[in-house]
Amino acid sequence: MFRLRYRPHVVATLSLGLPLIGSHLARMAIGVSDTVMIGWYGVEELAALVIATSFLIILFFLGMGFGTGVMGLIATSIARGDETEVRRGARMALWLSGIFSLLVMPLMWFSEPILLALGQTPRISELAQDYLRIAGWGLLPMLGGLTLNSYLAALERTQVVMWVTLAGLPLNVAMNWVFIFGNLGAPELGVQGAALASLSVQVSQLAMLVLYASWLPMARKYNLFQRFWRPDWPAFRAIFWLGLPIGVTMLAEGGLFVASNVMMGWIGTRELAAHGIAIQIASITFMAHLGLSNAATVRIGQAKGRGDAQWMRDAAVTVTAMSLGFAVFAVVLYLVFPEPLVRMYLDPADPQTPAIVAIGTMLLFYAALFQLTDALQVVALGLLRGVHDTRVPMWIAGFSYWVVGMPIAWGLAFPLGLGARGLWLGLVAGLSVAAVLLLIRFWRGWRRGDWTPQPVPV
């Protein structure tokens, strides 16, 4: 009976989640290709890329709430058969994503003094600004693409999202090879070449998603792009207040990691390079949990729309168990193969490689420590977004990452002298507290009937 009860949920979650995991991994692979190829180019350039992408990701996290938040709302509206609300929510999420991207562009254009104020070296700050002045324009297609990803995921068309993202990987590698190193007669642009490649890929991917969303027969009834220029202020405000807490939540979590990047830069360039590699390796396995979290948002949103509390419970149990299973696999991977994982990012001929490998191998041990709690916290966030609960999770995230995680990271790293180890132990602490509190929030609300479907005010 147990197997029969959960088997449909496993199948449905995999059907939704695997393509989403594939798309997240492909997106991450594009970032990995940048890091690996810049790592071959030079250690200073690699350190600058770590800082620059951290800066960009912070802004991306803050702006992604609108595109992420609309996923659960659209899933609920589809389950209720409300075509108008699907269109209104998705359209205003696109508006908000575009407006946000333009508003934050000056921060990237004039990022060098900000990075200097954060304690980065003049050379690293200069190179990072060179990258951001080009890559920053990619924030608009990134956030627009994220919103369309959510729209298509809610329509259960996740395979297309995966293939569009995968198509960008070989294009990015080829353009990196040309513009970073100056091949085929192109100028040798270093970090600027990586930025140019990323921007080109992001624009291409957005164009493909727009074309597909316009063509998809089952989506034509929503008329997503019809009179797109006309504002819908009630929906605009509703999506803003739904998405802003998600953006702040993502900022709180992402900011914890970015702050660790900044503090690692205070310790040393080699430590920062190793830290960037370890974080990116951990991020690769995190993409599996993120894809399952997205699938949880859609499935819990569907349950909310249908008013089926038991179905909601079974779907939540299923996705949580699946994420924990993958976390165990990642722990084994990090503990058994740490050195080969770090070495693939570095030039064997570089004299600094052995030192960076030693530091990175040590950091992967600490990455293994937070795999289970990282999986639980992101899945819990996906469950809560499915029931449109975003404000309390925002406060939980802020407390966990910045009242618990960051002070522990700083205290262990500097006053207590643990350095890089201390920073990563702080990450473990913050993620663990978040996982516990977010899961309590979802399951307590489910038991009390708080997630009983109510009309969504859009």
Summarize the structure.
The chain has 17 helices and no strands. The chain is an all-alpha fold and 458 residues long. The mean pLDDT is 88.
Description:
With 458 residues, the chain is mainly alpha-helical. It has one domain. α1 crosses α12 and α4 packs parallel to α10. The chain is globular, with a radius of gyration of 21 Å. The model has no long low-confidence stretch (mean pLDDT 88).
List its salient traits.
single chain, 458 residues, mainly alpha, 83% helix
Number of helices: 17
- Most strands sheet: none
Assembly of the depicted chains: single chain
Rg, Å, rounded: 21 Å
Number of strands: 0
Taken together, the total number of domains comes to 1
Helix and strand pattern: HHHHHHHHHHHHHHHHH
The poorly predicted ranges are none
- What best-fitting shape do the alpha-carbon axes yield? globular
For the record, give the distance between the C-alpha atoms at the N and C termini, rounded to a whole number.
40 Å
Overall structural class, as computed from helix and strand content, comes to mainly alpha
Strand content: under 5%
Summarize the amount of helix as a percent range: over 70%
Q: What is the residue-mean pLDDT, rounded to a whole number?
A: 88
Question: Could you outline the blueprint of secondary structure elements for this entry?
Answer:
Elements: H1 2-41, H2 43-63, H3 65-80, H4 83-109, H5 111-117, H6 122-135, H7 139-154, H8 158-179, H9 191-215, H10 233-267, H11 269-306, H12 309-336, H13 338-343, H14 353-369, H15 371-386, H16 391-413, H17 420-448
Helix pairs in contact: 1-2, 1-8, 1-11, 1-12, 2-4, 2-6, 2-10, 2-11, 3-4, 3-7, 3-10, 3-11, 4-7, 4-10, 5-6, 6-9, 7-9, 8-9, 10-11, 10-16, 10-17, 11-12, 11-14, 11-15, 12-14, 12-15, 14-17, 15-17, 16-17
